[in-house]
Specification:
Blueprint (H helix, E strand, L loop, with lengths): L5 H17 L5 E5 L5 H9 L4 E6 L4 H11 L8 E2 L13 E5 L7 H12 L6 E6 L1 E2 L7 H13 L6 E2 H10 L2 E9 L3 E8 L1
Parallel strand pairs: 1-2, 1-4, 2-3, 4-5, 6-7
Antiparallel strand pairs: 5-9, 8-9
Length: 194
């Protein structure tokens, strides 16, 4: 059965509004953690100037392929395996995008994510979407409950501190250039190559 996420449907329009601006002048986007594949199919169709490369763990690729096939978007590539704990695929991308990934990874995996981004020689822009804490504090009660649910399921996961994420970017030659408020207490972080 084709995977589906209600959250992807709800957040795609606000994210697209920002991506239109942020990814101007970019040519190939590596999406890290494509999940169901809904964002890849929608954004590729709406951002025809970009080649969109979805990626995820091998177990998620069949579902992503269904969305890719149904999209009929010539600029949407077949998904590739990307596990931040392993060697990354060769994708000559000048932009990267990831949504709702850092809070389900362990902190060590978040470090590996940024390390992998830092090694992408052509990367100019990285966009990261999701909930974040500021100064160790949640921005809403719903995010605090969400964090508790995540940590009960997997203690190494959880909503990350923006300051720690920004420092990881800095350590990997990616400067946090924008922090954009999004619906449902989420943020869109835009990193640019230093």
């Amino acid at each position: 059965m084709k995977p589906y996420s209600e959250a992807c449907e709800r957040n795609r329009e606000p994210i697209l509004r920002e991506l239109r601006r942020v990814f101007q002048g970019r040519s190939l986007v590596l999406e890290i953690g494509s999940g169901t594949g809904q964002h890849a199919a929608y954004f590729a169709s709406e951002l025809s100037h970009l080649v969109w490369q979805p990626s995820d763990l091998a177990v998620n690729l069949p579902g992503i392929r269904e969305w890719v096939s149904d999209a009929h978007a010539p600029n949407l590539r077949d998904p590739v395996v990307l596990n931040v704990d392993d060697a990354w695929p060769e994708v000559d991308a000048d932009a990267a995008y990831s949504a709702n990934t850092c809070h389900i990874m362990s902190w060590r995996q978040v470090e590996r994510l940024f390390g992998g981004l830092g090694r992408m020689s052509r990367l100019e822009t990285f966009v990261l979407y999701g909930p974040f804490k500021y100064g160790g504090r949640h921005t809403s009660e719903s995010n605090e409950r969400f964090n508790a649910m995540l940590r009960a399921r997997e203690p190494a996961s959880g909503v990350r501190d923006l300051e720690a994420i920004a420092a990881l970017g800095q350590a990997n030659s990616l400067r946090l250039a924008e922090d954009i408020a999004m619906p449902a207490n989420n943020r869109l972080l835009v990193f640019v190559r230093q």
